[in-house]
Design goal:
497 residues, two-stranded antiparallel sheet, 19 helices, 74% helix, 2% strand, globular
């Protein structure tokens, strides 16, 4: 069997594990252990393309033609360098999130871990799919799993968060579906590569409408200002391990789809390869929304009293930074964005995993109620400091390396205002991270709150260790990682244009 069929396994394996978990449950075996081993297998598979590319010079992309149909009629799964870079990070975060997600001593309802399998299948499919309709299907699979996982605590706060997450998801999905219908009506295909070839002969207004609707739908999914209101409410009621996984994985997968749409339909980055400049209106929209997201996201994070809401608003600011990089439209700037997306998935999920441990011990995530939580916990203290420094953009962390790469590309492109905004976002984030760390590390333990031992402590500490090691290693190897990211973006541009 050819390696070209490898992308299929990244979707088929987690989907196969869903019904198998039912039989594991009926045999009275540990569903949690089965899930961790199963997701571990998926994670190992996700590392194969990147390892093969670096060590064995594996040729990418790997293109799997389902049923040997042509792209305009059939399903094509394409694993390119963009997917090869993001898949290992995403699947590792899913594995760690599932490990933390439920206490081993609790009775785990049977659907809980199958939802994680479906989440892995949906996000993997979203990253490797090459046509818009299947991207929509995988995005919906991911969204349904996300809604269920957000509500899984079963209390009123969780249901409220899940409902708000659901409403925002439905709005974004409606925009996406309308846009896909418009593009299909104008070009007769949903394959991105074929669609790009037919753009010249398609009705301009209908193509523009379809493109705008898809981009708006993805902006809702990514919680870009002014579509950001749902995110803090949608994540604050979720288990923190779930919130970290959704913030680090689902948004990264949606970002990949946005990047493919902007490159294929919007002409993003073509100025570097074939001399066709990006449309100025699109460039201006990305700049304006990126600027607004950075300022609004970090400013609102300043006034939050809950750790989870603070982190959610911080994510809005970070995705604004990525939009500013997109507005420049050079290959190097988009490569810096890709580098930052990987780093953000790690450092933001790491902070949410830390919050999961704090919430389990203290019974809530109010920052003042977490006073003294880090006392006597050297690993958690170091991890918290490293994640916060990385999110601010302080060396020697990978968060600094990717932010610096974005700032350099913005300056080289002459976008000094955008570079200043990125730096300003880091400055604004210092007070709220410093306040949270000072309270958690030096505050007093509330006498009204009983400190409880958490049997998931080992899994949480393993996740924190992995995150810290990654952030330092990616900083040391930042030159190589950026070079791989640049190669990935170049190959994406060549494939679609």
């Amino acid at each position: 069997m050819s390696m070209d069929q490898f992308p299929v396994f990244l979707i088929a394996v987690p989907l196969t594990l869903v019904p198998l978990s039912f039989f594991v449950f009926k045999l009275h075996w540990s569903v949690r252990a089965f899930a961790i081993w199963g997701l571990g297998l998926v994670t190992l598979l996700s590392w194969v393309p990147l390892t093969g590319r670096i060590v064995f010079d594996l040729e990418l992309p790997l293109l799997a033609y389902m049923g040997n149909w042509d792209p305009e009629l059939g399903i094509v799964l394409g694993l390119d360098m963009v997917a090869a870079l993001l898949l290992p990070v995403m699947n590792t975060v899913i594995l760690l999130g599932a490990s933390i997600g439920y206490k081993p001593s609790e009775h785990v309802p049977i659907p809980f871990f199958p939802l994680w399998f479906l989440l892995a299948a949906g996000t993997n499919g979203l990253v490797v799919t090459s046509d818009l309709f299947n991207a929509y299907v995988f995005l919906e699979i991911t969204s349904i799993c996300s809604h269920a996982l957000v509500a899984y605590r079963g209390d009123g706060y969780a249901f409220e968060s899940a409902f708000k997450y659901l409403v925002a998801g439905l709005v974004g999905s409606a925009f996406l579906l309308w846009g896909i219908i418009a593009l299909f009506a104008s070009t007769g295909t949903l394959s991105l590569s074929v669609l790009v070839e037919r753009l010249a002969d398609a009705p301009g207004p209908l193509v523009a409408a379809g493109f705008a609707l898809i981009v708006c739908g993805l902006f809702v999914k990514l919680a870009i200002v002014p579509f950001h209101i749902w995110k803090p409410d949608g994540l604050s009621g979720a288990p923190s391990a779930v919130a970290g996984t959704l913030s680090g994985v689902v948004l990264s997968a949606a970002l990949v789809l946005l990047l493919r749409v902007l490159v294929g339909l919007g002409g993003l980055g073509t100025v570097d390869l074939v001399g066709r400049a990006i449309a100025e209106p699109l460039k201006g929209v990305l700049f304006a929304l990126g600027l607004a997201s950075v300022v609004v996201g970090h400013s609102l994070a300043l006034v939050q009293s809950r750790l989870t809401r603070m982190l959610a608003y911080s994510s809005v600011g970070h995705f604004g930074v990525m939009l500013l990089a997109l507005s420049v439209s050079t290959t190097a700037a988009v490569a810096a964005l890709l580098f930052h997306a990987m780093n953000h998935a790690v450092m933001k999920s790491g902070m949410f995993f830390l919050a999961a441990g704090a919430r389990a011990e203290r019974g809530g995530d109010r920052i003042r109620a977490l006073g003294g939580y880090l006392r006597g916990k050297p690993l958690e203290t170091i991890a918290c400091a490293v994640f916060m420094l990385a999110l601010i953009g302080v060396p020697p962390t990978a968060g600094f390396a990717s932010k610096w790469a974005i700032v350099v590309q913005l300056v080289q492109a002459g976008s000094l205002v955008a570079a200043v905004i990125v730096a300003l976002g880091g400055v604004i984030s210092v007070p709220y991270y410093l306040r949270a760390f000072r309270i958690m590390a030096g505050g007093t333990t509330p006498t009204a709150v009983a400190v409880q031992a958490d049997p998931r402590q080992f899994a949480t500490r393993a996740a924190l260790t992995v995150g810290v090691v990654y952030l330092f290693a990616a900083f040391v190897l930042s030159g190589s990682v950026f070079a791989l990211s640049e190669t990935a973006v170049t190959s994406l541009l060549e494939a679609l244009l």
